[in-house]
## 1
Amino acid sequence: MKRIRVEYVWLDGTEPLPQLRSKARYLDDHYSLVIEDWNFDGGSTNQGSLENSDRKLECVRTYKDPFNKGGLIALCEVAYHSNVPHETNTRHPLRALTKKHDGILVGFEQEFTFMDKESQDPLGLCLSPKEQGQYYCGAGSMNVIGRQIMCEFEKACIDAGIEIDGINAEVMPGQWEYQTKAQSPLKASDDLWITRYLLERISESYPICISYDPKPHPKFNGAGCHTNFSTALMRDRLNDKDIESLVEALSQDHSEFMKVCGEGYEKRLTGECETSSYKKFTSGVADRGASLRIPEKVSREGKGYFEDRRPCANIDPYKVLHSLITSVGNTLLI
Ligand code: MG
């Protein structure tokens, strides 16, 4: 009997940002493989207690496992054995909401920073950076750091079957970005979590760790997770009046939305370093200093998407999209 190695991956109950956990098992591959539910110790993941620790893993999406040929990665939701979703399961509410809304597409621009494991400083500080400017999309050993790890990451994404749109070195040395392909909110969020999982796994082989700190160094640009969003209607028509209604809806929910923009957002969203201030919602065509950017091409053509520049690198995409979809749901654009 053929047996398949399956790595079950789930989000734990760590606050404010869940950590990724995983464990593997071998499943018999009969005629077609069934990824059975599995059990874990929620008392060790902030999802239960010693006396009440059994929690259930329910596979919701599978990927090829780039680290084990022929194996699978199974992304799971966490539930009680009564089948009630666990309180830390932020995917479940988004799944329920998106059932009502077809045609939404989302792409993320995930920034992050390689940190030295021992000093916990950004890896790029060893280049003795004086100021930002030479590192963005840089080349050469004095201008870029961590490319080898990014090449490994890129290959792992492809091997897993995750489509990313691009990768670039960022403004601060040791800081990188990758862009995920525009997809349904649930798939885009699942893929984002699995790309983070792949990065974590690759980092185990180097003296580094991955930081999603929104402001890892006071002198340099912070790390965001700009969120590109469109509905089927917006891709067909997004004129000035539509944009006005969008701005009003997002502006109204601004302070609520900031709560899901990532712990420490106020350190990044200062109004400096290509950000807007967290204190006030702003919007503009081609404006990278605004909360909401309408791309120039979208404004010119009167259709397309918007870029929400508020989310920080350390967001939970399930929460961010739940909030954004709810806000856009108050317009006629969905
Ligand atoms: Mg960037």
## 2
Amino acid sequence: MNKKHILITGGAGFIGSHVVRRFVKSYPEYNIINLDKLTYAGNLANLRDIENAANYRFVKGDICDASFLQELFSTYHFDGVIHLAAESHVDRSISNPMEFIMTNVVGTVNLLNAARESWSRLLSGGDFENKRFYHISTDEVYGSLGETGFFTEDTKYDPHSPYSASKASSDHMVRAYHDTYGLPVVISNCSNNYGSFHFPEKLIPLAINNICNNKPVPVYGKGENIRDWLFVEDHAVAIDVIYHYGKNGETYNIGGHNEWKNIDLIQLLCKILDRKLGRPEGTSAQLITYVKDRAGHDLRYAIDSSKLQRELGWKPSLQFEEGLEKTVDWYLANKKWMDEVTSGEYQNYYQNQYDLR
Ligand code: NAD
Ligand code: TYD
């Protein structure tokens, strides 16, 4: 029997590496092709444990390169695409929005075109049966909540940052390809993730790294903004479930009903690290430093994931305190990973190894 070929884009990044690992380990009957440009956020060290697996292959490439994508699709005849490649950091989108438009919008449309062309050619007349294009998105497309309420799949899009606006545009294009060309798409919008292999420009790994190194922990504004945190491995399970059982044309919200004010979360991290590093309680909290607020800073995100729970039976497996302890333990045990990432060493090494094109 021919193995199915699944393309995962952005598989060397934070969430993508967890998704690649899950699919490689759980589905020996698939060939997993990980396509990643290896930007500053892409790190093949995130995948060392599975890099030699028989059903795994890494391809370095850019989703903004349409002809490269066409070639890739004609080589592998993909059965499915799980699209995570993106520029993902709000602060970077404020200083350089164009990169976000290129990768998140143009790159996504290139992928949609490559899938549509390849599948129409294979299945004359564009019968897309058994194919699937799964687009991974964020709850940030819905904008900002006040004190109460939750984002549902019917919440009107109202993005504020260049990052969330670029993700909203890509979501609309994915839906347009479904409605116009009948492409079999599914979309999920997830809340903030945390866990291992998270690039230390994002709040949780940045705070852990700074606390460990006795450096100031920057809190934007008053620290009163609220995020809804989900353990990354629970997100990977949700992606697996939606890829296999989600309905074409549908959107699923993913989240853990786990809202934290930034300042409370940072205080909790300080407490956990005081205990783990053997510091007197209250030591790490002295590193908290209030800094200028982020421009256009969304106040509150909170996801209602009841559709996914009801229709596909997914629910988060971990309580936040447990997940956070596990995450802190991982960073303490993987200091070398953090040192390499913060020094940029991994990029030099892997760029040299894979700069084949
Ligand atoms: P990340 O920044 O850690 O990883 C992104 C990956 O995409 C990197 O490996 C990078 O090298 C690759 N990439 C970037 N531009 C590329 C290009 N032009 N061509 C090919 N590869 C490219 O991001 P993440 O946090 O893992 O997020 C993954 C996806 O999930 C994104 O689409 C993001 O919008 C979405 N998402 C993230 C979160 C979160 O909390 N991190 C929450 C919800 C949704
Ligand atoms: P971040 O991890 O960048 O995710 P996002 O902006 O996509 O939600 O930020 C999470 C929250 O933490 C957000 O409200 C901004 C805030 N924040 C800080 O207070 N200090 C920091 O150094 C960073 C990176 C974020």
